Amino acid sequence: MSSKFNVSFNVDLSKxxxxxxxxxxxxxxxxxxxxxxxxxxKTHAEQELHRVRTDATVHxxxxxxxxxxxxxxxMLNVMVEKNLEIATLPPGTAIKxxxxxxx
Length: 103
What we know:
Blueprint: H1 17-21, H2 25-54, H3 64-83
Helix pairs in contact: 2-3
């Protein structure tokens, strides 16, 4: 069994007008995904890692598993960002769920 997977999701980024205006819309969409999904997740994992590492109420021998979980989350975010591929979908492609709120 392989441990390698292709994870893909279709999103409608029409709420981000900077993508339509960009000289390279796919690069702009990539940056939106990094800025709104990947970086916040990585930052959260880094903060949790620091919290666990510096928590004086937890014995040092009990920190290994929670710290490893946060390190795995950080590394997964790095792998996703480095291997992220963005492709424009044809007009009319159905998106299973979208965010209807205008802001």
